[in-house]
Amino acid sequence: MDFIYDTDRLKALAEDGKVAYRQATPFPHRVIDGFLRPEAARALADAIPAADSGMAWDRYAAQGFEMKLASSREDQLPETVCRALHELNAGPMLRFLEALTGIGHLLPDPHLLGGGVHLVGPGGHLGVHADFNWHPGLQAHRRINLLLYLNDDWNTDWGGDLELWSTDAARREKAIAPLFNRAVIFNTRSDTFHGHPSPLATPESVWRRSIAMYYYTSQRPEEELREPHNTRYKGMHLP
Hints:
This protein is of the alpha+beta class. It contains four helices and 13 strands.
């Protein structure tokens, strides 16, 4: 079976990149271009429903913190999108992530809590935040994010860079453009702050498109343990 990603390539990327991943600042992460097989990335991008498709999107509209559309509803998403979600939750992907990150015993999330397809339109944004740290359905700790961007001919003047911030949320440390078939993988803790806080300056017809996948473990290191919390926004929950 051919997955939407090349498993041999991922094995090599994990072996070559594991040290750099774990030593990256402001927290462990890796940017991988050409993450999916080219034909699979093209088919996935073409299958993502448009914002005005009539699909029942989940709408987030907290001005200053989060403005986007999202869906993890496999009964509504196209088959091509559902296949991608399933294969990003499959064993070969988990083994790649374990090898790259050094975090073992990873669990996928069949519920896609907070994940799935994300669309951000003109003026939309996602404030700097640290993610929720506990999945009540899985009874598990959130450990890794995988964000896959599917934006054709992205103009960097539009904004929309994923920003990685210092662990005290005091300053931006890195900006990553949301380019087509680019994946960003990073550890999630209660202090791994990130977002794309500046409102998008895209034309009316252009939306920032991504797939968000989250991975969990039943335990986590003691120094990372915190009481379960929801998303923590800079400016709402902390200075």
